[in-house]
TrEMBL record:
Domain ABC transporter: 2-171
A UniProt-annotated Pfam family: ABC_tran
Species per Swiss-Prot/TrEMBL record: Streptosporangium album
GO cellular component: plasma membrane
Entry-linked CDD domains: ABC_MJ0796_LolCDE_FtsE (cd03255)
Stated name of the protein: Putative ABC transport system ATP-binding protein
Keywords of the record: ATP-binding, Nucleotide-binding, Transport
UniProt keyword annotation of Transport present: yes
Stored PANTHER family: ABC TRANSPORTER RELATED (PTHR24220:SF685), IMPORT ATP-BINDING PROTEIN (PTHR24220)
Keyword Oxidoreductase: no
Superkingdom, taxonomy of origin: Bacteria
Amino acid sequence: MLEARGLVKSFGRTRALTGVSLEIAEGEIVAITGPSGSGKSTLLYCLAGIIRPESGEVVLDGRRIDTLAEAELTKLRRESFGVVFQFGELVPELTAAENVALPMRFNRHGRQESMNGAADRLARLGVSDCADQRPGELSGGQLQRVAVARALVTGPRVVFADEPTGALDTLGGE
Ligand SMILES: Nc1ncnc2c1ncn2[C@@H]1O[C@H](COP(=O)(O)OP(=O)(O)OP(=O)(O)O)[C@@H](O)[C@H]1O
């Protein structure tokens, strides 16, 4: 379903990816491990269409996505991908529920429907109590669960988690 072919990406003189290839099948859960700074996040960002590789290809369902125009890539990210970022990346001014509802709002769902979807996801992850709190008031584990809820709320085809084992365990249950 998702394939990387010979991905190369550098930041200045740092060669983060030097020709990475992998294939991920539908329904498969893949964990990429390696030392700090070895390029795991960079690979994830390339696969998720957040950054573009210098060379190589990213293919989703047989369609090359790394060369899509920005607007098309944004649409694909919104509709097909969910991402749990390493540091949560929740919007500090919004409540947990509003953060989780955001991807649905971006996909043009109404406010109430989006908030209902968020409440459902937060409940399934056991953090309904956090719904009205802002990220600064949450514990590390609660933040992680809210970030997972936000990644899952649109029912994406692919979920990427740039996280150690905690988020992976949570996602496995979903
Ligand atoms: N935006 C950037 N600008 C400059 N260098 C970067 C950037 N992003 C990553 N790098 C460098 O690329 C290399 C790979 O970084 P990356 O974040 O992909 O590693 P990682 O394996 O995910 O690390 P960790 O396990 O510590 O999260 C590192 O040397 C890092 O310093």
